[in-house]
């Protein structure tokens, strides 16, 4: 290939890269040669997966004993011509607390430094891609069903990319799953499966998924945290309102989820706004069976559903979060960390296994808990409604 041809294609490839996601084969080769080497644990996924891209995620992940699968950072692209916008710093399942009804045992499963199990093609399914050596992480792009139905323009379906792994916690297996959707939503899920504790096959217990998420919306250090509540009272019958207030009066501390208030948190960038002059933000949307409260020694972290701290080096231990908040640091225009409990109550059923030679041998169907981070005013308009 002549030098002039190479220079021309290089220039054209750069322009294409700035204008959108797609490139011709020649351009793609030149882009790959000129681009920095992509980290082995970095994934870039555009949506729709098999059509011209409208949005995209760039995600860096890691694995370790104990925590299993963690997210190191994540960036979102709101459109083909937009720059990458950071949404997450470090995000992880910080602890998995499993207290049994009789008072013992009371397991802190992350602290035992369990390893991830190796996955195979059966776990990956028809569309999954196994990652790592040995393969302990699976990437899937899934259809997530109907996004909306409109009487004039028809129906649109949504998509999401999942990264998941399975922690080998003795008799239990914990599926740790992060979902990155085409509309900017991030889903956090932990699924409990495996076998009930030996000799306690029919004893009720809790699976408390305790999450630590460093939210870095448009970078670290500029985020503020609010509580959003739906308020409807007999005193003002027939009317309701949404109230937003600073989380714990603007300093580190805790808040609780109330079913009748549909409690959510809102993490906002104070200076960056969308076209309507509204600050961009993300809502913390709980998915709850109920609120877990445990009163054993060292279990104060379960007494509240949300905790917010500033991001400090070395603070990853969820059971100590009630100590971390004693700094009373400001959480307005700060580098903030969300600590959130997603609790699942397991009251065993006959469907959790079968009797073999007089012994109940279990294989408990997966039970999920978690929450979503959902964009609010991140876009100027819907990213999916037809142009």
Classify the helix fraction into a percent range. under 10%
The count of domains is: 2
In CATH terms, what is the fold-level topology of the largest domain?
Beta-galactosidase, Chain A, domain 5
Nearest-angstrom radius of gyration? 23 Å
Query: What is the β-strand count?
Result: 21
Strand arrangement, largest sheet?
A: 6-7-8-9-10-21-16-15-12-13
Name of the CATH first level of the largest domain: Mainly Beta
Which shape, going by the Cα principal axes? Answer: globular
The low-confidence runs, each spanning 5 or more residues with pLDDT under 50, are 1-34
Name the average pLDDT: 88
- How much beta, percentage-wise? over 45%
Q: What is the annotated CATH architecture of the largest domain? A: Distorted Sandwich
N-to-C SSE string, H for helix and E for strand:
HHEEEEEHEEEEEEEEEEEEHEEEE
How many angstroms separate the termini?
40 Å
Q: Which structural class do the helices and strands define?
A: mainly beta
Key traits:
2 domains, disordered N terminus, globular, 387 residues, Beta-galactosidase, Chain A, domain 5, single chain, mainly beta, 47% strand, 21 strands, 9-stranded antiparallel sheet
Account of the protein in words:
The protein has 387 residues and is mostly beta strands. It folds into two domains: 1-35, no CATH class; 42-376, Copper amine oxidase, catalytic domain (Beta-galactosidase, Chain A, domain 5, Distorted Sandwich), CATH 2.70.98.20. It is built from four helices and 21 strands. The chain has helices at residues 3-19, 25-34, 121-124, 321-324, and strands spanning 42-47, 55-64, 68-77, 85-99, 106-108, 129-131, 137-150, 154-169, 172-181, 186-194, 205-215, 223-231, 241-246, 253-255, 264-273, 279-287, 306-310, 336-346, 353-356, 359-362, 364-376. Strands 6-7-8-9-10-21-16-15-12-13 form a ten-stranded antiparallel beta sheet. Strands 1, 2, 3, 4, 5, 11, 14, 17 and 18 form a nine-stranded antiparallel beta sheet that branches. α1 packs across α2. It is globular.
């Amino acid at each position: 290939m002549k030098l002039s041809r190479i220079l021309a294609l290089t220039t054209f490839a750069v322009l294409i890269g700035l204008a959108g996601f797609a490139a011709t084969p020649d351009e793609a080769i030149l882009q790959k040669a000129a681009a920095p080497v992509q980290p082995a644990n970095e994934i870039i996924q555009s949506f729709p997966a098999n059509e011209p891209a409208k949005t995209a995620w760039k995600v860096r992940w890691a694995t370790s004993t104990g925590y299993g699968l963690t997210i190191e950072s994540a960036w979102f692209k709101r459109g083909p011509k937009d720059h990458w916008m950071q949404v997450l710093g470090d995000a992880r399942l910080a602890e998995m607390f499993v207290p049994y009804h009789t008072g013992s045992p009371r397991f802190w499963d992350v602290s035992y430094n369990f390893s991830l199990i190796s996955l195979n093609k059966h776990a990956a399914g028809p569309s999954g891609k196994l990652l790592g050596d040995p393969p302990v992480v699976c990437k899937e792009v899934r259809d997530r069903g109907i996004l909306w139905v409109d009487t004039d323009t028809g129906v649109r379906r949504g998509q999401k990319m999942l990264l998941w792994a399975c922690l080998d916690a003795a008799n239990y297996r914990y599926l740790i799953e992060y979902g990155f959707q085409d509309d900017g939503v991030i889903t956090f899920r932990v699924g409990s499966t495996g076998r009930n504790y030996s000799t306690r096959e029919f004893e009720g217990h809790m699976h408390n998924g305790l999450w630590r998420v460093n939210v870095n919306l448009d970078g670290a250090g500029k985020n503020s945290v609010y509580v959003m509540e739906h308020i409807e009272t007999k005193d003002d019958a027939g009317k309701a309102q949404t109230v937003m207030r600073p989380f714990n009066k603007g300093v580190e501390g805790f808040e609780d989820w109330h079913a009748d208030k549909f409690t959510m948190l809102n993490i906002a960038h104070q200076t960056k706004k969308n076209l309507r002059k509204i600050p961009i933000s993300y809502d913390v949307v709980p998915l709850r069976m109920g609120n877990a409260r445990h009163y054993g020694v060292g279990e104060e972290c379960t007494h509240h559903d949300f905790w917010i701290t500033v991001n400090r080096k070395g603070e990853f231990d969820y059971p100590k979060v009630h100590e971390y908040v004693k700094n009373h640091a400001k959480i307005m225009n700060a580098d903030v960390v969300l600590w959130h409990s997603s609790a699942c109550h397991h009251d065993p059923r006959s469907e959790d296994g079968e009797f073999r030679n007089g012994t109940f041998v279990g294989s408990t169907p997966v039970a999920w808990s978690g929450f979503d981070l959902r964009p609010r005013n991140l876009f100027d308009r819907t990213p999916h409604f037809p142009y």
